[in-house]
Design the sequence.
């Protein structure tokens, strides 16, 4: 039987189509980061395999095979800290213990402050409280009257100092008292907020939401609606809130089939954007400039000294320019998620700081003037939620508390203050001031021979460790003992408010160095030539395999084991998704 000529033609088209599909699939694989973070599905599977085990009293200070005298010094130092914590944080610890059984968040954060092998021991002895009763200047005060320099930055909300927000809340509340909690209709302040936000963002339209997560959801939904494409691109390690599509890996029990997680700052990713036709938007969290392709650094993941960070402004600017060009060329919506960095790097946010304009920008955190908020600013055509020519084809977005009068009023106060001379004057010198502070601290640490350094993106800092060690996570407890308040991710992230003067910062630097000296003296940074980060990782892997093997032997032929408790790695990595 002979094949008609059109048969050959159809066959050739099919082969060409298959070859194209294969090529784009391969390009996509190449654009994924080789780490587990770059492979969400695999990461979830691996996380589910991590077994719980913990070190006993003997191993707890010798998990790196340190000599007995070093382990003894560590134990003494640890118990000295434990005594200090017990004496100093009585009421704060008591109330934390009281609520632990009833507030899920407290249980979670308390469980994931250190690598899981040490958690129970540490929690038994070093109770970090979850309560504060006051704030002032750059400090916060706990229930026992202890005052700490605040490095938590209230998750990034606190850009200008807590007193600034107290004023926004007070003055804002007074402005809207007459209307009270009426929703649906707007308080007139909404009009000036919209005007100011359009000017600051350089965008044509604004929408108000209740959280950063919701602002990101709405931006992505709009991008899908207008491009009629399905997929969003996020970069490896970047956090964009806890909505499923932007958290495709560990921490989210469901897969996110319409999300591509690509390598940050990489030509392979640009190639994918240039060739695929299903990409609606690219989400950029400019905070990733400090640690491209890595998740938010938390001390629960600090199993060795592999944490790295370095901000290269010129390189990241080039990357954003390249992204801008390819998105324009391909009709992909470029979204800057400035929920974290907005108003912190520059008055006009990351767009101004890096000199690159996005199509949609999300804000939140600080913009609420101390109250919860999410905002999308964007090009008018992209912000539209309906089509004139197809009246039933809409892009729905609501939220009961959107544009709440009290939130709008606090935002109004925030935006108002942004234009005051004392705030405007902060921005031009910001970068230099915080870079100089980081550099001075690093020089001091180096002179003192201490095995750590800081990396920073302006006022957002992270601590890196320069000597292989399994005990870096202990540093957070030494810092608290010196009077520095840290968030539950510990030394992974310090967020300074911009009202830190030179004297305030000098006090923080002194405390930081004192804490590091104490930890060094207590032997926690003991190391020998055989102890490398690779050796540490291998050892942990071996320990895990052994746990599985023992469980297998114990079970014999008795079927699959029931889990004693969920894998701690799962949740710890969720934070760093
Ligand atoms: C970049 C970014 N996007 C979105 C969010 C989510 O904001 P929210 O916690 O207000 O939902 C966060 C929160 O940390 C964030 O840092």
Sequence:
């Amino acid at each position: 039987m002979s094949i008609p000529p059109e048969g050959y033609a159809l066959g050739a088209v099919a082969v060409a189509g298959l070859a194209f599909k294969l090529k784009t699939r391969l390009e996509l694989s190449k654009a994924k980061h080789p780490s587990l973070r770059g492979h969400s599905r695999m990461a979830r599977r691996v996380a589910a395999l991590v077994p719980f085990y913990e070190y006993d009293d003997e191993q707890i200070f010798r998990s790196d095979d340190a000599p007995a005298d070093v382990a003894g010094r560590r134990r003494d130092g640890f118990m000295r800290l434990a005594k200090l914590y017990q004496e100093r944080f009585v009421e704060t610890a008591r109330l934390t213990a009281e609520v632990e059984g009833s507030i899920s968040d407290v249980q979670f954060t308390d469980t994931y402050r250190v690598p899981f092998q040490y958690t129970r021991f540490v929690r038994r002895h070093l109770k970090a409280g979850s309560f504060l009763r006051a704030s002032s200047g750059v400090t916060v005060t706990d229930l026992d009257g202890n005052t700490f320099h605040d490095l938590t930055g209230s998750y990034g909300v606190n850009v200008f100092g807590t007193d600034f927000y107290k004023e926004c809340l007070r003055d804002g509340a007074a402005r809207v008292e007459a209307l009270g909690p009426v929703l649906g209709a707007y308080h007139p302040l909404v009009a000036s907020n919209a005007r100011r936000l359009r000017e600051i963002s350089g965008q044509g339209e604004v929408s108000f939401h209740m959280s950063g997560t919701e602002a990101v959801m709405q931006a992505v939904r709009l991008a899908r609606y207008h491009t009629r494409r399905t997929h969003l691109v996020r970069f490896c390690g970047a956090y964009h809130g806890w909505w499923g599509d932007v958290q495709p890996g560990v921490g989210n029990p469901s897969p996110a089939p319409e999300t591509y997680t690509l390598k940050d700052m990489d030509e392979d990713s640009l190639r994918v954007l240039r060739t695929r036709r299903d990409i609606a938007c690219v989400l950029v969290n400019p905070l990733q400039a400090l640690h491209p392709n890595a998740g938010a650094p938390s001390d629960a993941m600090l199993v060795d000294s592999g944490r790295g960070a370095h901000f290269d402004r010129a390189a990241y600017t080039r990357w954003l320019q390249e992204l801008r060009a390819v998105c324009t060329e391909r009709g992909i919506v470029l979204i800057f998620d400035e929920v974290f960095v907005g108003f912190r790097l520059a008055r006009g946010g990351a767009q101004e700081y890096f000199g690159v304009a996005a199509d949609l920008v999300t804000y939140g955190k600080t913009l609420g003037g101390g109250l919860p908020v999410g905002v999308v600013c964007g090009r008018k055509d992209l912000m539209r939620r309906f089509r004139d020519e197809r009246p039933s084809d809409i892009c729905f977005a609501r939220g009961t508390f959107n544009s709440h009068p009290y939130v709008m009023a606090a935002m109004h106060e925030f935006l108002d203050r942004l234009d005051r001379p004392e705030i405007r004057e902060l921005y031009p010198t910001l970068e230099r001031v915080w870079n100089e502070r980081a550099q001075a601290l690093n020089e001091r640490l180096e002179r003192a021979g201490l095995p750590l350094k800081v990396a920073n993106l302006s006022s957002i800092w992270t601590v890196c460790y320069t000597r292989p060690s399994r005990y870096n996570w202990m540093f957070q407890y030494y810092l608290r003992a010196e009077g520095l308040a840290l968030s539950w991710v510990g030394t992974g992230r310090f967020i300074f408010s911009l009202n830190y003067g030179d004297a305030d910062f000098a006090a923080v630097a002194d405390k930081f160095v004192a804490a590091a000296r104490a930890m060094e003296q207590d032997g926690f940074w003991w190391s020998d030539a055989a102890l490398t980060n690779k050796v540490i990782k291998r050892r942990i892997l071996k320990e895990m395999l052994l746990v599985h093997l023992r469980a297998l032997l114990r079970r014999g032929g008795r079927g699959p084991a029931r889990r004693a408790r969920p894998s701690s790695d799962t949740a710890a990595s969720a934070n760093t998704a």
Notes: The chain has 20 helices and 14 strands.
